[in-house]
Every structure is written in structure tokens, then in C-alpha cells.
Give the backbone structure.
Amino acid sequence: MVDIPKVLSPDEVGGWDRSADVVVIGQGVAGTCAALEAHRAGADVLIVERASGGGGASALSSGIFYLGGGTAVQRHFGYEDNADEMAAFMMASCDPLDPLAVRRFCNDSADHFDWLEDQGVPFERTEFKGKAVYLTDTTCLMSTGNEKLWPYSKIAKPSPRGHKVAGEGENAGAAGMAPLLRKCEDEGIPAIYDSNVVALVQNAQGRVVGVRVKQSDGIIHVEARRGVVIAAGSFNLNHEMIAENLPLLGETSEPLGTPANDGAGVLLGLSAGAGTSAMDGVIPTGSIYPPGQLIKGIIVNKRGERFVAEDSYHGRTGNFTMEQPDQKAWLIVDSEIFAYPENKFANHQLVDGFETVEEMEARLELPAGSLVRTMNEYNANAEKGEDPYLHKAKDWLKPLDKGPWAAFDISFDRSTYLFITLGGLRTGPDGECLTPRSEPIPGLYAVGASAAHIPRNGKAYASGMSLGPGSYFGRRAGRHAAGANWTG
Amino acid sequence: MVDIPKVLSPDEVGGWDRSADVVVIGQGVAGTCAALEAHRAGADVLIVERASGGGGASALSSGIFYLGGGTAVQRHFGYEDNADEMAAFMMASCDPLDPLAVRRFCNDSADHFDWLEDQGVPFERTEFKGKAVYLTDTTCLMSTGNEKLWPYSKIAKPSPRGHKVAGEGENAGAAGMAPLLRKCEDEGIPAIYDSNVVALVQNAQGRVVGVRVKQSDGIIHVEARRGVVIAAGSFNLNHEMIAENLPLLGETSEPLGTPANDGAGVLLGLSAGAGTSAMDGVIPTGSIYPPGQLIKGIIVNKRGERFVAEDSYHGRTGNFTMEQPDQKAWLIVDSEIFAYPENKFANHQLVDGFETVEEMEARLELPAGSLVRTMNEYNANAEKGEDPYLHKAKDWLKPLDKGPWAAFDISFDRSTYLFITLGGLRTGPDGECLTPRSEPIPGLYAVGASAAHIPRNGKAYASGMSLGPGSYFGRRAGRHAAGANWTG
């Protein structure tokens, strides 16, 4: 069992060492946006950050913001996205707990992009039309989710909604965080670093009124006159919480994030009576693409059956793979599309090349006849441009009939899947923490990865659904905690 | 915590008092179908039933089988349903763990209907086109799910798939069970009643080889040479399991089923190492319709917001309502559509009539301005025949602008919601029990409500998704346990 810290009463605290209107725990993208908005709404803000500087996991990320509804970049390239189409896609795919939160995010999404640019976050007017997991150059716009995938393509008009910060390399998130952190400094928002919030203080009426902070030289108590915003990241690196909620993640799976993503934020919320959501949601990513041609292959499980449309977003494919017997799966290709997966980190091993499908089936120890049957059926349908059950899009359909064939092992116990957890505290549309029965806890907010993501399972995630909603709901929580209305 | 019975080793048993090839636990629809198929495949079968006779919760149900793909009744009325459309709907709405199981069910669904008729289960060639929760007459075909609901209507061609047994009254299930039970008798399949399976016997290799049965006059041990089929129903009436998995069900919620639906089947499976799925899935039903005109009203939560398309299947509406703040919601109508809900059991109370929306908002203690804003927005869109976020179908859209207005309280703590749990043991496409890592447990099967349903949450359920898949996978498990191939 995971230990939840004890919540303190004001009596136990005695007196306050310091006081602010709004205390923000964590200075990743959600906390930074909360602090900026609370400050600009006239609140006296204090940021409390465990690390020696701001940035958090956001600064280690690939810097993609999922935004749409007609952003400046979408319009630049002629995409006619709008809030309705974006909301239709997210409502249909994400199984959101709170439709109103989705509606607000989609309605304000294009304006929120402008706001980010106004803060100095750099976005180019450039576009990538291929299939990639992330880009290492500064290109901005890209499809990062399941918009073009059946059945979502039938529900809403697909538009690319991944907006990457114009930073080089795998960790472009740093280039997005730098201007936001600079704004905090320029506007004189105080922050204390190397400071770990170890408990919340809650009064007899249930209102959260302050925090206990552990620093290298002792403990201090900080009063929060209006509210506490938990923006302390995910529980990716809390091994106990992972084992309890996500037992199928293999031993070779690797969490993304910083050591501070140990679930402290979630546990603080639980201590004050907050509920959680989607704690078993995860994106395990071990993409088979690039190169895109591998999507024309098929993925089969230990029963020799396909189980996911291979053109799914890589996190969706990973999630389905995780649920297969023994977490085992193989990517099967023929000679026409053969290539090694470029994803070096995932380390998908080539099992071998085979002159016949029968040999391959035997070597993979699949049930007799199963792979032959699966491939015959797949090839006959692909010939007609159809995939009647899993609905892989036509562009990726071709009969796999040009031997020899090859198989890559993409099983969870062989390959390395990077993962991001999606669960966290239950929150309302202003980031207010909710009890399991959805009642708000006065004075307490959770945003970013300490809150449950909008998508409740990894099958619905798109790259950018952490930074996009995280930054937006961070802003809303900041204003709400400061006592101000949302003005967009 | 819920106590799981201890699994026994053959050594602990000593010797067998009785022996069979296949032991079927429970004689509801799934167990009966399993027994018939195992027997007809040449196995020596023994049915072990806790009650004094067969029927189980199936005989207490409204007798609806969810079947499609072009059944005789669908064809009779000119519906062009096929396995692809049915599978597309179920794949998109049910979030199934096992696409292959869905494919098999849809492929064989029309044949399975014929099989049921061949056993003597009576179905009329009659159709009901209105909106009802269940019918009390003998009419057969009816839309019972979310097929016509956005977004599913965009993904697959809607067809009615609820097939009701030709029995009178609310419990037409009995008329479906009677001929199936008669077949068991006619074919000489032995059954022992008042007999409670209290433990499974599992050998050192992990194979389930028998059961311990408690009877009024003592304990007996029954060997199962080929397999044990758990068909012992749901955990609806296990208060501990409900509290642990479904904390949001209110105290006024009432389980459907028989006292034997106490989770014993699920717990037996767990004792042998089986995994579970969808344990937090539930259909809470307290339908607002009939009459259908009430669907033209809107449902709002404590924040004065809509949260579900009001034309959803009643279990979907109930599921969304359960997730709202404090589990509270109201149905709002104007004078043009005013009517009392006919659902006497749910007992939705009229709060009052109101001359203005402002008065109603104040009386319901909704945030100032919230209901006025929601209704203005709804009415303006309805005027254009639109519902841009929740997508209620055009037929049900009309501006609610003909005062006076009325509100019905449909909150979980006021109304009575009947519920059916969807969770249960993880199973493969032949009903074989699977470990949490999806490996089969040799000799162990689970079907019907002891297994997890295909839909993993109540938002995707349709009436008949218990009896339909339950009877079909019961047949498959029976044949598989008997060592026979599936022949349809």
C-alpha cells in the first residue's frame, strides 16, 4: 500500500512562517501558468519547487502542445479546424469525466495558443506531414494523435493539432519553459527552490489553508489565504503506485519524467480528501514507426491474431499490446516493406527472416495455422482495400505477399516501452480538486500531471495532451484561486 | 476486503465422490447453453446449481438477447444488418479487451439466433419502433442501445438488435429459460440442486480438476476430467464487492438479480489465479423515458450544466449521472412536453412548476445564472436543429421556451436506480479464464455474468448484452471444455 501523508490542522501548525494568497506547488508548465495568471489577477503568489530551479518534466519533454480549434498555425496552413470539431474528437475518443472541461479547453484553445506566443513561447509557421513520434528539429505543426484513425475520422474532421515549440533536439520542452520562467522572474513572482511540500494544512471546515514545506535546514509553514495549486507532476516514478495501478507494465518499461514525479502531488490531494480518476490509464510507447512503411505490416499476438489497427498513434498501439496474452506481440512485414524500426530506444529485435509464413509461425510458437489464416484473411481484404474489423486506413493497406517475410519482437518483456501515466486527482473545469463524489475541496486545485488527464486511457492520448491542457487549466486554476473570473 | 475462497489441491480432497467430464456451475442461460453444447459434443456433464431449480437471474430478466448481423427477425423487417456493421458498432462503443471475441460474436450472431429458436426459445416476428426501457408484451425486435446515438450513428449503420423472448410481463426471461431447461432434462443432462460450489480444486500444474460442493447434508467433491465452467452470475448482490468497486452507487440503488448473484463465481475464479476486468463497470438505470417526449427536455447537474445527450440509452444516462457532483441531476421540461415519467420504480419526484427559469434555478440551488445560460444556449442551438457538443439527435431537439417550466429530481440519493454490474473474470474468445497477464488457466472457463461483459462500462451497454453474449459464449465454452471444435 502507498502511504498517504497526514493532513495537518491549523492547531498542529501553530503559526505561519510565511504567507501568500496563492501557493503553487511545482514550477512545470502548469504551475508556471497558474502562478502567472494568479499574479496578474492581483494575488500575492508563492511558488514552492522541489528542484533547484523551474522547468520540471515539461522542460524534459518534447515540447508539444495539443491545441486546435483554428490556431494561428492551423490557419496559416489552411486547416479549417474549429472548436466543435475538436470537441467532437475529444468527446468521442477521450471518455472524459467532465464534458464541460473539454468544451472550455476546445473553445479557448486557439486563444490559448496566442497567449502562449504572447508570453514568448516560440512556435514556427512550419509543418510536418509525415508519420513520426516526435521531431528533433524546430518544425511546429504535426498530427500527433488518432484524428485520422477509424472510428474518429468518421466522427470529426481531422486536423493536425500537435504544436511543437521551436526548440532543437528531443527535449524542445526546455525552449518552451525558458520564456515562461523568465516571465515569472520579470514580474517578480517569488519562488523558493529545494523546497518540498510534505503536507497540506486543512481547517475544520475542510478548506485547505496552507502547506508544510521541508527545506534542507528545517521545516516552514506557509499560509495560503486563497488557495493551494498542486502542480507537482505525475506518479510515473513512484514504483509502488505503478505496481498497484499498472501491474501489466513490464520490468523493462521505463518511466518518463523527473525523479520528482513520484506521485507526491497526487498523495497530497488524497490526504485532503480528493478523489482520483484514471489511475490505470497509461501510454506505453514503443513505436514501430518511423519509417512509415512499417505501418503496412501487421501486428499479431500469441494467438496469431491482429488486435489493433497498425496506423494507430504509438501510445494506443502500446496500450493494446500491453493487454495481449503475456504482453507479447510481433510486427510482421514482407520483403517489399522491410526496414528496421528507427526507434532505437524501444530496441525491437528482428527475430529472423523466413522463406514461408509457416516457418515464421512455427518459430514464433504461434498456434498451428493461426498466422497463415490471419495473413490470408488480411491479404485478401487488403487486396480489396479493406480492413473490415480493425479499419486500418486504405493508405496503409497492401497484401503482405512478397516473401521472404520477417518478424520483429515488440513484446513488453523484450522491447523497452517508455510510459507516461494518465491518472491523477479528480478536478473540475477550473482545476478545483474534487472528492470521489465530485464535490469541490475549498482552497485546493490540481493541474498538469498531478490531475487526471482528459483522456482516461492511453488508447485516446495524443502527444501534447499533457502540455496543452496542463498549461490551459493551470491558467484557469491560477485565476480561480486568485478569486478572479476567467476572461480567456 | 472481500474474502477469496482458498483453492484446494487434489491431496487435500483425498478422493472424488462423483466424476464428470465437464462440471457447469450455475444453470442460468450461460450455464444451460454450456451444458447443452458440452453434452452434445459427447462429454459427460454435471450441472451444479445453488438454487432448487434452474433459471437463475436470466429467468428474472426481461428476456432480451442482443443479436444482429442479419437475424431472421431483422431480415423479416428489412433491416440490412451485417456482421461488419455490428462489429463496428461494438468495437467503437464497448472498448472491448478482446477484438476477436467481438468478431466471433458478431459473425455468428444470426446463426446463434437460429440455434436459440431451434432449442424452442420463442421469438415473434414483431417489432416495436418507439422508445421504451422494456416491453411487457410479446413484441420481439426493438432498438435497445446507443446505435442511433452520436457518435456511434456516424460509425456504423444503426439496426435494432434487441430480440425479446415472446413472454408476457416484465420477466419474459422465464419464457426463454423454460425450453432451454426442458432440453437439458430431455437430453438427460444430470443436475444437482441446492448445491453450492465453495472451492475449486487445482493441481500442481495449475489445471482445475474439480470442485468442492456444499449440500444441506454435507460436503462432496466432484472431479471435472475436462473442465469447470463457472456460470454463477454476477456480484450485484455482494455488498462488499459493490462498496469496493462501485462507491458511487447510492444507498437507494437496488441490485438486479437473485440472492445467488453474490460474486461467488468471480471469487472462485480469483482463487485459481484468474484476473478480472471492468470491475468498476455498471449500468445504473432510472430511465426518464417513457414517455419519449421527455427526451426533449434537458438534464443538468449541480453546476447547472448539461452533461449527457438526453437521447442516450437509459443506462448510459444513469452512468453519466452517477459521475456528476454529489450524484445530483434534474430533468428540466417546459409546458409543451410536460409529462410524468412512467418509470414508477425510479420514483423521480417532481420538484415543482416554475413561472420563470430564474425561479427554478434558485429553487434547485444552482449557481446564479447557470441554468439561464445553459437554457439560452440550448434553446438557441435547438432552434437551428443543432446540439454542437452533446449531439442529441435532431428529432429530440426543440427550444424549451414554452413556460411554465418544471423540474424532476433524478439524483442518485432521491431516485431509485436499479443496477447491473459489468465486471467479472477475464476470459478469452472461448470463455477460457485468463490470468491478469491474459494466459489461460487450463480447465477453467467463465461465462455469463461471472465473466466481464463485452462493454467495459455502462455507457456502452445495450439491453440484451447479458443474455446475447452470455448464451453464445456459454455454448463456445461448453464445446471447448468438451474438447470439441466450434462449429457454430
In short: Chain B has a mean pLDDT of 94.
